[in-house]
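Suppose a colleague, Dr. K., hands you the sequence of a protein chain of 155 amino acids and asks what its three-dimensional shape might be. Before reaching for any lab equipment, you can write down a predicted structure in token form. Begin with the sequence itself:
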Amino acid sequence: MTHPIETRLQDAGVTLPEAAAPAANYVPFVTYGSLLQTSGQLPLDAGKLTATGKLGAGVSLEEGRKAAKFCAINILAQTKAAIGGDWNKVERLLKLTVFVASDAGFTEQHKVANGASDFLAEILGESGPHARSAVGVPSLPLDAPVEIEALFELK
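The predicted structure, expressed as tokens, is then:
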């Protein structure tokens, strides 16, 4: 029987990519007791950034939301790798930390973060409501507009 998370991904037309390998000296996730922490995920689609630049200076709010959704897709790919593909091991998403590369006058980081939060709530169902921080930063690796890390509770 297909797990509800897999069904919701399929219904959303989303196929999770292979979990990306680290680009530097870190691991893509760490488990500690019942906690799973992902490293920051960039908005990669087929190995390429979906957008580059800063919100409020060339990257639109809608492009930022879409980038945040791709970060969330990559978070789920890392999570699936961490749990060996067994979604029954996920109790709930506890927190997202969303970093938004922002022009000095941009103040809608929370709306960019909704691109990830809305998607994860849809896919994770009852396990999806989470705490969140949305932080504006001057730049991110590879000129990505968004980077997101996640903390899950495991069963």
